[in-house]
Write a structure and sequence with these properties.
single chain, alpha+beta, 8-stranded antiparallel sheet
Length: 223
């Protein structure tokens, strides 16, 4: 009888030891999974991502509700951003045009990117881009001074990237966002120049002759 009780006690001790070890392992697995979820699997993007998307923006029709002067709009310290959820880059732009292309009901935005710019590679790889306006002049100043080859400019400025339904990147701190899909690209050369203005302007310009990108407006939002 005593031996039987002792045997039962030994079995119970092993039962609790085994279950205690299993419980510890279970807790460790849950804790590790939680950490993995928080860290995104170890891939930590430089630019913060805003999953709330366009919650602070209101969509508008550029053909009916765009109130800015098209001749001066591109003097308002605009930012061009291009890419997708896997990669993107942005730059300051001071040239551009707003109007229509290949039809009166097809609003278009034209932007210019020199081949030496880091953004040029993205414009060649991706079919959509956004043009954004900011209230903070530091955004344009920083984007125009530094290259994305040297670091994440948006992260340095504390900007949050979000994506349209087409996956086009933009920054939630912008006051206006215009999304475009590139319809055509014109790689200018010196033989295209018809008067002395471009000849003189590009004389000694090391970044190269700008490529002209005409994009159809497929979305527009403002705060």
């Amino acid at each position: 009888m005593v031996l039987l009780c002792q045997e039962k006690c030994v079995h119970l001790q092993w039962f609790f030891l085994i279950n205690n070890a299993m419980m510890k392992r279970f807790i460790l697995i849950i804790f590790s999974a939680a950490l993995l979820g928080c860290s995104g699997g170890g891939d930590k993007p430089q630019t913060a991502t805003d999953t709330t998307s366009k919650q602070d923006f209101t969509a508008f029709d550029v053909q009916k509700d765009f109130a800015d002067n098209g001749f001066t709009y591109f003097t308002k310290n605009l930012i061009l951003c291009v890419g997708d959820s896997s990669e993107s880059n942005a730059m300051a732009i001071g040239w551009g045009a707003i109007g229509n292309y290949l039809g009166h009901d097809r609003p278009a935005v034209t932007v210019y990117v020199a081949p030496a710019r880091y953004t040029y590679e993205f414009m060649e790889r991706h079919k959509r881009f956004t043009v954004m306006e900011f209230d903070d002049p530091r955004v344009w100043q920083y984007m125009g001074k530094y290259s994305g080859r040297d670091g994440d400019k948006a992260a340095a400025l504390g900007l949050h990237v979000a994506y349209t339904e087409h996956g086009t990147p933009y920054y939630t701190e912008a006051k206006t966002v215009i999304e475009c899909e590139t319809m055509t690209a014109w790689h200018q050369s010196a033989k295209d120049f018809r008067n002395d203005t471009p000849k003189q302007w590009y004389d000694g310009f090391e970044a190269g002759i700008h490529t002209v990108y005409v994009g159809e407006v497929i979305g527009a939002w403002k705060k």
